[in-house]
Design brief:
A hairpin with a 5-residue loop joins β5 and β6. The model has no long low-confidence stretch (mean pLDDT 95). The protein is an alpha/beta fold. The protein contains 9 helices and 7 strands; from the N terminus they run βαβαααβαβαββααβα. α4 runs parallel beside α5 and α6 packs across α7. The chain has a domain of 104 residues: Rossmann fold (3-Layer(aba) Sandwich). 49% of the residues lie in helices and 13% in strands. The structure holds adenosine monophosphate (AMP). The site of adenosine monophosphate has 17 residues, from α2 and α3. The site of adenosine monophosphate (AMP) has 17 residues, from α2 and α3.
């Protein structure tokens, strides 16, 4: 299965991607996680990306295209992949289509998690995350031990781009640059829209029901 998890920031793409990884063993490719790892390691890519990320802007397409091209060619993608946070612009989607054609792995489905703005803002402002990629919500999904990641035992923190100023900009950027992809994939008959306001397990059940149709 080659899946795109689509939706605004805070829609639950990362959370659902991780559940899918456990469920069907195909890798999650999160461009946000890849960029954040580069920022942490202080690589050239990380240094270039950080200023965009902190403001809630998109990192330039050229940077992302290189990352995604290399990642999709890795061995663990042979049985499928879950794209989380890519594509985010029409040019990124166009390039993705070319890469996938080249490697013979068409997208099977685009799962669009729909969530209203006020819920997104609430979720993001209460989000904590871990450098291992796990994410939590201080009220609805807190770590079992205060501030400690359930998965790896590291300390959880608030993402720098989850601060109020950046969040508003991320939503604006989503609407202007990313939302047009809804039509783009709907026209290709790939889009399935799901109610992302349900709780984590309910959304996952809905996702499994969609994927069962492809089995
Ligand atoms: P995410 O973790 O998916 O919310 O991404 C965090 C930030 O990383 C975004 O706000 C962008 O600055 C950057 N980013 C992640 N994926 C992309 C992408 N496909 N295109 C451009 N920038 C991206």
């Amino acid at each position: 299965m080659n899946i795109i998890l689509f939706g605004p920031p805070g829609a639950g793409k990362g959370t659902q991607a991780k559940k899918l990884v456990d469920f069907n063993g195909i890798p999650q490719i999160s461009t946000g996680d890849i960029l954040r790892a580069n920022v942490r390691e202080g690589t050239e890519l990380g240094l270039a990306a950080k200023a965009y990320m902190d403001k809630g802007e998109l990192v330039p397409d050229q940077v992302l295209i290189g990352i995604i091209k290399n990642r999709l060619k890795e061995q663990d993608c042979c049985k499928g992949f879950i794209l989380d946070g890519y594509p985010r612009t029409v040019p990124q989607a166009d390039v993705l289509a070319v890469i996938l054609k080249e490697i013979g792995k068409p997208i099977n489905v685009v799962l669009n998690l729909e969530v209203p703005d006020e819920v997104l803002v609430d979720r993001i402002s209460k989000r904590l995350m871990c450098k291992c990629g796990a994410s939590y919500h201080t009220v609805s999904n807190p770590p079992k031990k205060d501030n400690i990641c359930d998965l790896c035992g590291c300390e959880v923190f608030q993402r720098s781009d989850d601060r109020e100023e950046a969040v508003q900009n991320r939503l604006k950027v989503y609407k202007k640059q990313t939302q047009p992809l809804i039509d783009y994939y709907a026209k290709q008959g790939l889009l399935v829209t799901l109610d992302g306001t349900k709780n984590i397990d309910e959304v996952f059940e809905d996702i499994k029901a969609v994927l069962a149709k492809f089995a």
